[in-house]
Amino acid sequence: MLMVYEAGPCAVKAMDPAGSEGGVFRIMNTLTAARAQMEVSLAFHMVFAALGIGLPLLMLLAEGMWLRTKKQHYRDLARKWSKAAALTFAIGAVSGTALSFEFGLLWPRFMAFAGDIIGPAFALEGYAFFIEAIFVGLYLYGWDRLSPRVHWLTGIPVALGGLLSGILVVAANAWMQTPTGFTLVNGKPANISPFAPFQSPAWIQMALHSSLSCYIATGFAVAGVYALGLLRGRRDAYHRSALTLALVVASVATFVMPLSGDLSARSVAQEQPAKLAAMEALFNTTKGAPLLIGGLPDPATGTVRFGVELPHFLSFLATHDFNATITGLNAFPVDQRPDVVLSHITFQIMVGSAFALIGLALWFWWARWRRWGKPNTWLLRALLIGSPLGFVALEAGWMVTEVGRQPWIIYHIMRTADGVTPATGVPLTFFGFSVLYATLGLALAYLLRRLATGAPQPASMPAEPTREQEGQQEKPQKQEKREVQHVA
Amino acid sequence: MSPEIIVAAVALGGIITYAVLAGADFGGGIWDLFASGPRRNQQRAAIEQAMGPVWEANHVWLIFVIVLLFTAFPVGFAALGVGLFIPFNLALLGIILRGASFVFRAYSPHRSQSVAPSPMARRWGVIFGVASAMTPLLLGMSLGAVSAGGLRIVGGQVVISGIPPWLTPLALMTGMLALALCTYLAATYLANETTGRLREDFRGRALLAGTAMAGLSLMLLPLLALGAPHLWQGLLRPQALPAVLLGVAAALVSGWALLRRRYRLARISAIIQVVCLLAGWGLAQYPYLIYPDLTLSAAAGSEATLRFVLFSLPLGLVLLLPSLWLLFKVFKGNGLSASKQ
Fold first, then answer.
1. Among A215, A283, B128, B252, which has the highest number of CB atoms less than 10 A from its own CB?
2. Which of B:23-42 have CB within 8 Å of A?
3. pTM exceeds cut of 0.90
């Protein structure tokens, strides 16, 4: 270790033999709490990061359709989505800031070791996010200050900035999965390449996988909102176009996803065999390994209950060779195995959700091709029920990535326990930030629910409110009121 | 000059820009909390209008500084995360609550036919105001803590003996000064972006905040001379003294300009004042990241990474600066004419 940071009183405690046991207990507690706080913070931020990548594309498409066709409902859609985006961007920005602080507050020893290795990814990501934040201001507040064409153009840096910052930040995580670009000299990193995060073999497929999942999660979630509207009988152009736009974005990403999944699977098989074994609950190294579908692994006995096995398919998916040998968990010391139950179950949830969404997308386009215009209640219900699955898959997939890397914070280089802060009080901050995020999440859900009030009625559409009027919230608010009544 | 010093200068530039831009957003939140008189709703509307399009971009300067810190000075970042665990957590709480409550209030249900906020909007408004005060106070205290000398690093371990460094009198005064600075900037900017009586409201507030700033600065002088002689002597060094003197002159000019209702002059001199104050601090703090145990050179990360940061900077700025110019031109360029309507 480069440096062991210890707060004063703790250093004293560690020297006191009687207090050493308490010291160990405290560190255990801190580690669990720090991991939990990181999980909560990332899981929360990820929702808004995904919306920050997906929503701008939807707004661009809707506003672009308005510019092309001059049909008013496309503009209404873009404006509605930009209002939702104003809320979610703000939460995304502040919860992302929380993560940059938490690197130092929770994992100072990891940062002391790796800050200058993963830093370049964040340095470039910073510029991408900066561009995004600047143009978010222009796009969200510029509806009446910019010409329609220029306004549409300001949405492009928002969409690209969001996507690019996602891709760049994943490079830092990819480096933690497959560290490269430095040499270890006496336990310290040396000969650091500033391109280390971008040289990480996992980066490209991880970035592709996570970017696609952002479009899928946003697209199906938005589609669900308008499926509900259509189910409630609002079968106007506004709702139908919204559903179609959302599903265009979601479907394109969904149909590319299996390809990305294949790349990721083979990358994990090659770079992180312990993770693959945990994901698949493969306890013993097997030639021609079967693919396990479902099932509950029991690490104590090394068996799986209730699972269905497809013979040779794991070998095929991991290596494109039906008879390849796949390394099982037994090849790794017990203290270097990830949590097999959590890895396997979250992986099953991710894959299951993905296939359900592929099915939904296929159903939608088939139904649309067959008889668009006729209400298809069952399809709309399915879209409504399936609408959270994109986010479920996103969160579950991220759990697979992170749980599967354990017990390492930097794979085979540094254990998570060696990266955690010596500061006391992490259980308290974990509790505090969890309560905070839960409260903010609920408040946001309430406000978004209020926004989702159907198409603006042409009669009540005011002439474009000027910025000054909007500042006082007079006209838009009246309009909202009417929309609320409309729902009721 | 070695690369870590240039990166540190860039980071100081980031801190200064954050103070000048985001500081005013925090100040706006504080004035929102203390909005009073017959025009209190108009005051709040003006603050919301001024902040709305720019606060997120202004906020990114903080992320810029944090990323520079952990990329270029990983060991220093780690020490700050441990030594300033409590104030950083509280500042983070403030950052999250400020941003969230600002947008939540804007989207809360409003009473029809009235400018007055609904109970829900008012509750988010209070949180917005309190969080806007909390964040600069704690960030200012943290800045004081790295200069005050109480944050010791011995044998690679953060050692805190006695009062936590962020609660020393010097750190507390720095926090208060940061608060006053934010309110001063905000009121001065808002006086530029409003007209009539509303403008007089903000002028009065700017004069109040300016007086508080002058008072706090005077109180800080003996504290510096007695409690942090290294910083005091650093400020009197030939490298830092011109910045300090220019800052004092700018402070006097901005106060005079406010009195004479010369708002543009007041704004530019208030900005110069803040730039000089923080630049003077940076020069006095040099060569330390955390006084007295961690110098910039000792905290610096790999040289290849430092060079990467420096080489990517012009590329980033080529994208950033025109974008920022556009943002401020669209929303601040004709702020005066817009509010005349």
1. B128
2. none
3. no
